[in-house]
Structure prediction request, 364 residues.
Amino acid sequence: MIFVTGGAGFIGANFVLDWLAQSQEGVINYDKLTYAGNLNNLVSLQNDQRYIFVQGDINDGDKVAELLEKYKPRAIVHFAAESHVDRSIHGPADFVATNINGTFSLLEATRAYWKNLPEDEKATFRFLHISTDEVYGTLSDEDPPFSETTAYAPNSPYSASKAASDHLVRAYHHTYGLPVLTTNCSNNYGPYHFPEKLIPLIITNARAGKDLPVYGDGKQIRDWLYVTDHCAAIRRVLESGRLGETYNVGGWNEQTNMSVVHTLCDLLDQLQPKTSGSYRDQIRHITDRPGHDRRYAIDARKIEKELGWKPAETFETGLRKTVAWYLANDTWVSQVQSGNYLKWVDLQYQGKTQDQKPATKEVA
Ligand code: NAD
Ligand code: TYD
Prediction:
């Protein structure tokens, strides 16, 4: 079996679904079910004997230790994290608690379990840590993309807490010999993406007739990757990654935020036209995010060369699938837009509109 943390979140759920669609090997999904964890993402597995869900916190070392002894997984894939930059600005404490202390606690429980495995199982065991490109900080337009040797320079409480967890994972390999692997991935998008992040927020706000909030000038750049491409990369690294190594995972797909928002509006105009006008009319520029990183870009040549992984989706095919998924899953959307979600939207967006004029004429 494999032991997955945070498997009820966006990437974790896609990974668990993908794993069980491709493999007979079982999965234990250990998840605290914070606001971002959603068992509706995994409802299709409710009668699947290969799948076990356990609600719990990665900070609960005794519980994790008990589960590791009980199920004897051959690998841990660690997704569990607080993951939203804007939330980390409003409340960094949860990010330190889960991303740093939680990863430390999970590493300790893993080390104790791994140490006592028989030699052959000890040799094949893997701890795969899922991280982000945001640990490298920000790029100017002229800089080359982030490679595995780019110095860490995190700028937000989120990225700083992920950077700290990456360092702990690395140290457990160098100090204790724990067989670890780390992936640093760019921005993901796709089904089951919680609508606090840019792409699902724009799709759901557009359809609800609400403002489409663009921070600052909207010329910030992200490198977007369709989530199932990320899942395939994780499987490859787990299978054949070199111990102690880090692998950058990206889509070779740099887009300004304005360009992403425009493309989404155009897709919606095609797939679900409004009675009059374009979804672009709903775009509003609002106060920028404090410390907003200007550009992220990933050099994904190492994983391609060593492990033969490349993204299968283009931005065009991936976004089209994503919009189609949201159009077909209204119930999922309305369930996640609960009272707590509305409170977050109020906290984050209330009173931040700078420019009431639609930005339809802006060229990305
Ligand atoms: P998410 O916020 O959608 O899901 C996080 C999951 O972790 C949720 O199910 C939540 O309930 C669970 N969780 C949170 N705290 C926990 C705790 N203390 N104990 C157990 N479970 C807990 O996040 P995501 O977007 O799916 O990201 C997954 C991982 O991938 C994170 O480590 C994130 O840093 C990394 N990552 C995300 C992106 C992206 O674009 N979303 C890009 C690169 C890397
Ligand atoms: P996000 O999806 O939060 O991912 P990250 O901050 O981890 O890259 O944001 C992606 C980009 O979109 C980022 O530059 C911030 C911007 N953004 C907006 O302009 N408006 C929004 O309402 C949100 C949530 C994000």
Remarks:
- The chain is about 45% helix and 15% strand.
- Residues 358-364 have pLDDT under 50 and may be disordered.
